[in-house]
Amino acid sequence: MQFLPQLLRVSIWVITACIGVFLVLVSPQWLNQLNWFMQDQIVRQTASDQPVDSVVLIDIDEESIQLLSAWPWPRSLLAELIEQLAQKQVKVIALDMIFPDKTQFIEDEALQKALTKNRAILPIIWDYRGSPSNLAVGGLPIHINQQTELGYCHKASGYVTSYTEMNESASLLGHISPVPDHQGIMRFMPPVVCWQGQPYPMLALSMLDRYVEQLDIIKITNHSLMLNINGRILDVSLESGLWRIPYRYEMSSFTSIPAWQILAGQLEMDLSGKAVIIGSSAVGLNDRVATPSLPIAPGMLLHAQMFVDLLSDHSHNYPSAHWLYGVLVLLITMMMAVIIVRFSIRIAVIWWLLLIMLEVWLAVFIYQINGELVALATGIVLLLLLFVSQSIMEWSLVKRQSYRIYQLFKDYLPDTVLSQLIKSTDEGLLIPQQKEVTVLFADLVDFTRMTETMPTAEAAALTRQVLSLLTEAIHQTHGTLDKYMGDAVMAFWNAPLTQENHRALAIESALLMREAMQTLNEQRGKDGKTPLAIHVGINTGEALVGDLGTEWRHAYTALGDSINVAQRLMMLAHTIGTDIVIGQATATCCSEKLLSYGQHKLSGRTQLEEVFVIPVTNKV
After folding, report:
1. What is the SS3 assignment for 360-408?
2. What pLDDT was estimated at residue 192?
3. Is 254 strand, coil or helix?
4. Which of 26, 110, 119, 360 lies in disulfide reach of 76, CB 3.0 to 4.6 Å?
């Protein structure tokens, strides 16, 4: 019978493991959304508010537009902005704006000269819709290291960029096109995009190329971007060729300077050696995006986040982090499986909540250590799936076991003991085992001869009345009623539930039987009927107890020599003329309250055994 629960548990574990593998390999969209939601919370809660020194945002904000000029600005004004920044000895100038059309020659020429002189970087916007969109605005000169090993390159179907001469004036191009999720949140950025066989890096990489002395894109695969930055090898983890934009810093960490302050010469801040991104937070310029950390953020913030991350020591690829988290989730899930088996549902729920908190803590810890956002939701879903499925199964097994126990013991035990037995989590209660028990036999003296002269109905009623009194005495002392044998009854204590005072309980039951018979005889005397007498034998010893029935009929009973001794002590009571006889092993509990009746030889046994009786006036 114990094989079935184990088989069901193993089946649940195997099915849960298979579902886990399926979820990891297939990554259904609902699970991705759930993972992203939880990862967003981690990003928001752990974002640093420490100031960022390497990059500064030059913001063409609402105030700058109102003070200087309506948008679009004259390109000579933008050229002057670039010149002013160059005079402050900034190291890199990148523009997060596109000039698809030509305007007045003098205006265009001023901006082109400023771009060329100061080696500024211009952007590209890609179209990722998949099918050829025939979107081709502007010109695309090639600005890429041809030594790059392109094991993977993200494909575009169209583009929008500045016109050819403007792009040729720029030092480098860098694309500014993240890949939004289904909710429009900017989560991923392809490090390199290919167009007609030519690769184009993202803006942050182009900025880094100008910021450091050496930058080589060594290799790009579906899983990693390998860079050589001033001799330091950086391996950035990618997901299907996309870099998860590292929103490590809060918006307040970045210095944002209104463009009008630069042009008005009112900036006192030292910008030497810094990288600057010229962009806009103005509502009318439509350069705002949704990010995991902010519902609305200026687009240049994304590129600043990526630039800082590439420049710092935070961006490392630790593929082992995902494996480590997977192993830890597996161990936590296995722990949950054991807890559900071993403990009650209340304790299991508490542990389930604690283990979920542990998984969350591990995910946060891994992110803070190496920047990897692990699949937290996947681990929680697996833990929830195991908890629900195994809890339902364990509940079903408990109900099945409880029903079996109820059916088996409903005629043997009082309700209080039966209730404790059903609540017990010990699965070995019904398994046959050797255990010390105290056994009681009781029968009516000469009852068979007495009932021969009675009408059948009266004899049956008297039998039920006497057996009910004896059974009630057994139940009052939490004994297990084993069986009725005509006008006799057998009971035992200390099984199935352990009872430390089982000897005293059996003796107390015998006294209750004596009192019940005295009360019955008083009533019978008033009715002019013959008084009744009982003989009781009590013995303690080892016995085989458990469910010793068959597949057709279950029976919880006790077998062994100690049972035979108790029955023979009952027979001895008739010989020595007393009602209760107690064996030596039972009398050890309270021999000072019992009366020794000397050594006696019991039927079928060679050794003498000291027996004890209970005087009628004595109370134990």
Report:
1. HHHHHHHHHHHCCCCCHHHHHHHHHHHHHHHHHHHHHHHHHHHHHHHHH
2. 93
3. coil
4. 110
DSSP state of 249: B
**Sequence-ordered list of residues with C-beta below 8 angstroms from that of 429, at least 6 positions apart, any chain:** 405, 421, 496, 497
Q: Structure tokens of 493?
A: 């204590």
Do 387 and 512 lie in one domain? The reply is no
Distance CA 418, CA 425 (A): 13
Residue 459 covered by a domain: yes
Listed as ranges, residues in the chain with pLDDT below 50 are: 1, 144-147, 315, 317, 618-620
* Sign of the C-alpha dihedral computed for residues 190, 195, 198 and 200 taken in this order: negative
Same domain for 323 and 201: no
Strand, helix or coil for residue 598: strand
Cα separation of 478 and 492, whole Å? 9
pLDDT of amino acid 307: 94
Q: Is the Cβ–Cβ distance between 563 and 569 less than 8 Å?
A: no
Within 13 Å, how many C-alpha atoms sit on residue 260's CB side?
A: 10
Q: Which residues lie closer than 8 Å to 446 by C-beta, 6 or more apart?
A: none
Count of beta carbons in the 10 Å neighbourhood of residue 153: 19
| Cα distance between residue 121 and residue 339, in whole Å | 59
Beta strands 179-180 and 186-189, pairing class: antiparallel
Beta strand extents in 498-555 (DSSP E only): 534-547
Quote the pLDDT of residue 412: 53
Q: Could you tell me the residue range of the domain that residue 357 belongs to?
A: 3-29+318-405
Residue 166, token pair as written in the block? 């403007």
Q: How far is CA 233 from the centre of its chain?
A: 37
Let me know: does 537 contact 440? Beta carbons within 8 Å. Answer: yes
Looking at the domain assignment, is residue 124 inside a domain? yes
Name the burial class of residue 327, with classes exposed (0-12), middle (13-18) and buried (19+) by CB atoms within 10 angstroms of its CB: exposed
Specify the pLDDT at position 17: 78
Return the structure tokens found at 158: 């169209």
Average pLDDT of the chain to the nearest whole number: 85
Q: d(Cα 351, Cα 369) in Å, to the nearest integer?
A: 26
- Judgement on whether residues 298 and 401 belong to the same structural domain of the protein: no
SS3 30: helix
- The residue type found at 246 is P
In this structure, the dihedral spanned by the alpha carbons of residues 467, 470, 474 and 475, taken in order and rounded to 10 degrees, is 60
Q: What tokens were used for 147?
A: 């030594």
Residues 42, 48, 54, 60, CA torsion sign: positive
Task: Report the C-alpha dihedral over residues 161, 164, 166, 167, rounded to 10 degrees.
Answer: 60
pLDDT number for residue 620: 40
HSE-CB for 240 with a 13 A CA cutoff: 6
Q: Which amino acid is at 191?
A: P
Q: Contact, 531 vs 521, CB < 8 A?
A: yes
Q: How far apart are CA 499 and CA 428, in angstroms?
A: 16
Please check whether residues 489 and 363 belong to one and the same domain: no
Q: Which one-letter amino acid corresponds to residue 30? A: W
Nearest C-alpha neighbor of 493 from the set 501, 485, 560: 501
Q: What is the pLDDT, as a whole number, of residue 454? A: 82
Same domain as 575, residue 470: yes
CB 376 within 8 A of CB 38: yes
Residues 528 and 600 in one domain: yes
My answer on whether 57 and 22 are in the same domain is no
- Domain assignment present for residue 420? The answer is no
Confidence (pLDDT) at 618: 44
List beta partners, residue 192. Answer: 201
Domain membership flag for residue 180: yes
